[in-house]
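Attaching the record inline, Q. Sequence:
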Amino acid sequence: MNLFFTTNRNQTFTVSIKGEDAEYALKEITRFIHYHQ
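Structure, as predicted:
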């Protein structure tokens, strides 16, 4: 599964998730979003 995000600065990034990695990926996404606010 690929998740695509666009930040409020129009930076787009993609996260590829395997089932067992979903929790880790969500933590990384959250950290990334907070860092780029």
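The mean pLDDT is 75. The radius of gyration is 10 Å.

More tomorrow.
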